[in-house]
Structures are given as structure tokens and as C-alpha cells.
Amino acid sequence: MTVVLPTSARPAAEPALHELTCAPRRRGRVLRVPRWLRALSGPALLIALWWLASATGVLNPQLFPPPAAVAATAARLAADGELQTHVGASVWRVLQGTAYGVLGGGAVAVLAGLSRVGADVIDSTMQVAKAVPNFALTPLLIMWMGIDEGPKVLLIALGVGIAIYINTYSAIRGVDAQLVEAATTLGVGRAAMVLHVILPGALPGFLVGLRLALSSAWLSLIFAETINTTEGIGFLMARAQTLLQFDLSVLVLLLYAVIGLLSYALVRFLERRLLGWRRGFEGA
Fold first, then answer.
1. Taking every annotated instance into account, which residue ranges of this chain make up the domain ABC transmembrane type-1 (predicted)?
2. Half-sphere exposure at residue 229, Cβ-oriented, CA atoms within 13 angstroms
């Protein structure tokens, strides 16, 4: 015997079933946190710990000013236009040095990576250059080029160029030989092989080198801005040390940290744009 439920009784069960099937999706949307926000949680936690340590008296405010004092110093310098001037001067030097270093280091890496003779001539020379700290060249650069912008930009370019060369050269030599053999079998010419096989295969290594190069650029900037300059973040740091302005010293450290995060974000953006064809492990 078949029992037929009244039509009015059916909708009562359907919403319950709909809620059961859709509840996990709604919960997933609520709990999902944007990745960029998760990436900023670490720095935000450090600032919170800094504020807590200052509020509880763990940190001496005379030696390590609280966040409010550093923020007040930043606001004062920004209102005077001094902060923008120094940051702009440093960013411009880094941009120039990075551009020269990427072009020079990348070109030398390609010459050494594509040719055995080039590798024999260039690679040993670059290994010697890598072993010599470019900061030790500061006195010589001053004597050779004077105290203008030239030695500052060149010092940054040397640090960037070495980082680009090492990673790009290793990436070129790390391209799968089977891909090159397959391209040769298919009749691909030398120029097409370089453009479509070798350089795309070396692109991930180049971007790793760019990430290290940007860190080297800002590190080189600290020494570069000790060369008779009155503008730049390094100049602010030197002035803060001379006058024992601890709030300014902490502010400069925060500036370097923020610029480092922005540099990292730039390289990550390039990786997403240029390496969209590559699928790698992104963590569980």
C-alpha cells in the first residue's frame, strides 16, 4: 500500500535538507581569511608585542620608545616634508642601482650560461667579485668617482648584479637537458631555443635572484648613503645615532622593514604574472 504525503507537508522537509547541504559552504566563506591579511598577521603581532612590552614597562622608553612616540616622530617629519624627501632620495638611488645591476648581471649571466667559453672566462671572475665585499670598495669608489651620486648608485648596482648573476647563471645551467635535446630534434634553431626553452626555464631562478638582489640593494644603500650625503634614509640613521635620537632610529628600522615588505610583494606579483604556466607545490 502506497502512502502519499500531502503537498503541504513536503516543503517542511526541503528547507532543512537545503540548510544541511549549504551550511558547510556558508561556514567556509565565513572562516576564509584573505591571504594578504594572513601575511600581515606576523608583522602586526610583532607591533602588538612591542606595544604590550612598552605599556607594561618591560622596555625602557628612553632606550626603546613606544609605538606612539615613533608614530609622532613620523608624523612630525612627514608634516615638515623631511620624511618624503629622504625616502624619495633613497628609493631613487635603489631604483637606479637595481636597474643597472639587473641589466648588467643578467646580460653577463646569459653570456656565461649559454657558452662554455663564456663560462670559463666570466664565471671565475664573478666568483672573485662575489668573494670581495662591495662595502670594502667604498673608499676606492670615492677616490675614483668623487662624492656625487655615482659611487652610491654603483655600490648598489654591484650588489644587485652579483645576486642576479649567481642565480640566473645557475638557473640557465639547470635547465633540463632533455628539453634542449627534444627542441633540437624538432629542428628548433639556436635563437628560438634560447627564447622559448632556455630563458623561460631559467626565469624562476632569475626571480629568486631578484628577490635577493632587492635585499642586497637596500643593504648596500646603508653604506652608500654614508658617502657625503645630506638626503636619504641612511642619512637619517646616521643623524639619529649622532644625536642619540632613539625614536628616529626605530623609525628608520620600520621604514626599512616596510620597504622590504613592499619589495617582496613586488617580486611575488611578478612571479604570479610571469610564472602562471608553472604549477608548483604551495603548501598543504
1. 87-267
2. 27
- 46 belongs to a structural domain: no
In a domain, 2, yes or no: no
Q: What is the pTM of this model?
A: 0.78
DSSP string, 151-175: HHHHHHHHHHHHHHHHHHHHHHHTS
Measured distance CA(186)–CA(275) in Å, rounded:
25
Q: Kindly report the CA angle at 19 between 16 and 22, in degrees rounded to 5?
A: 150
* C-beta neighbour count of 202 within 10 angstroms: 25
Per-residue exposure over 216-231, b if at least 16 CB sit within 10 Å of its own CB, e if not: bbbebbbbbbbbebeb
What is the per-residue pLDDT across 114-168, written as a single tens digit (0 to 9) for each?
Answer: 888 888 888 888 888 888 877 777 778 878 887 778 888 999 999 999 999 999 9
Handedness of CA 256, 257, 260, 266 (dihedral sign): negative
For the chain, the domain total comes to 1
